[in-house]
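User: Sequence recovery, please. Input:
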């Protein structure tokens, strides 16, 4: 902790979209001092030159600190790096005892063989997977509070988890739930790619990684842990659509017993009763714009005509689906933070 009593933090990969959102949140938090916003290529550049929403808000410049500087000058370290690079950079910091929140997929799966299958590479530090805590506050708040290494869930995964968790915790899920999720362009990160290029994306919708997206195994792992061990997998189709922020998920699943709509509503309302960021909607549909730029997520549970679960959920992929959720986990971990849902996480977004 700094002499001012603030938590000193570093954000690794701070030039990216996730890093920019972490900066937006941390720079508004009176309990936090951002010591390092790291970049390999932009060290010395003012933060506001890259994240123009922060121009004039901070004098901070990107930097490229050494391992020893990170150890000596920070209480918490956020990783906003691509998977693969993330584990390589963060593992030595975890070894040295730092508390780390990783936005990448590197520490989410418990089984290194599954990591190899879905991420296409050997895990560089499988020894850390067991103690890493999956940073889903709605399922793992107590473990997050005491964790040294938190693996913040993926953006799609968070939206799917929120749609399924109450039913999973009740032991109602089995087999292979079917998921379709529509997603925004910022989910692909700041680097320019053909599939995120405006003329190709702006007036189209395109399915990709059909039935093989890497977020599937972390959702399966979570719903099994939550109380539905008979879930075998998920048939997941991601679809890119021309919006900048947001995910809308439609999840359908067979239920182990017959429920009335009222019982399903009660199940979701009770499960999320004390969750500061989850809104269970019973009288309107979830939509991306009502949660844009916020840490809130919306979910509407329904029964299909044949009595299966049909849940629609939305969130902002960069906030509740990424940096905001990582920041929520940090708030849960830090003794210096009084209220998980305090501003700026608990601030309202914009409409429209
Ligand atoms: N975008 C989302 O909606 C979202 C949501 C949840 C989780 N995530 C995860 O969060 C992480 C960051 O995502 P993002 O969208 O912010 O990505 P991004 O915009 O591509 O930014 C990643 C940053 O990491 C740095 N970097 C890139 N390669 C690196 C390497 N090999 N070693 C060290 N630094 C490297 C780069 O900064 P410099 O070149 O300046 O060093 C880059 O700006 C990813 O693992 C992603 O899967 C993203």
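Assistant: Recovered sequence (352 residues):
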């Amino acid at each position: 902790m700094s002499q001012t009593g603030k938590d000193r933090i570093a954000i690794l990969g701070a030039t990216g979209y996730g890093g920019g959102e972490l900066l937006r949140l941390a720079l508004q938090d009176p309990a936090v001092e951002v010591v390092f916003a790291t970049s390999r290529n932009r060290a010395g550049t003012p933060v506001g030159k890259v994240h123009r929403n922060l121009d004039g808000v901070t004098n901070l410049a990107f930097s490229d600190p050494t391992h020893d500087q990170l150890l000596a000058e920070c209480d918490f370290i956020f990783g906003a790096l691509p998977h693969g690079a993330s584990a390589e950079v963060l593992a030595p910091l975890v070894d040295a005892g730092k508390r780390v929140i990783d936005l990448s997929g590197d520490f989410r799966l418990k089984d290194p063989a599954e990591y190899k299958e879905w991420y296409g590479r050997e895990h560089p530090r499988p020894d850390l997977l067991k103690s890493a805590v999956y940073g889903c506050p709605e399922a793992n708040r107590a473990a997050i509070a005491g964790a040294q290494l938190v693996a913040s869930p993926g953006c799609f995964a968070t939206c799917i988890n929120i749609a399924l968790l109450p039913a999973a915790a009740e032991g109602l899920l089995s087999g292979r739930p079917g998921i379709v999720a529509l997603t925004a362009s910022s989910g692909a990160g700041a680097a320019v790619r053909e599939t995120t290029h405006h003329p190709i994306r702006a007036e189209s919708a395109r399915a990709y990684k059909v039935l093989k997206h890497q977020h599937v195994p972390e959702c399966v792992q979570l719903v099994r842990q939550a109380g539905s061990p008979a879930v075998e997998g998920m048939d997941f189709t991601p679809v890119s659509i021309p919006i900048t922020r947001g995910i809308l998920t439609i999840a359908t699943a067979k239920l182990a017993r017959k429920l009335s709509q009222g019982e399903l509503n009660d199940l979701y309302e009770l499960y999320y009763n004390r969750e500061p960021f989850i809104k269970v909607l019973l009288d309107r549909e979830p939509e991306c714009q009502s949660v844009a730029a916020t840490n809130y997520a919306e979910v509407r549970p329904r029964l299909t005509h044949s009595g299966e679960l049909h849940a629609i959920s939305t969130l902002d992929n960069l906030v509740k689906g990424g940096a905001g959720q990582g920041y929520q986990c940090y708030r849960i971990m830090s003794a210096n933070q009084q209220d998980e849902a305090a501003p700026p996480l608990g601030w309202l977004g914009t409409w429209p």
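The chain has two domains: 7-152+320-333, 156-317.
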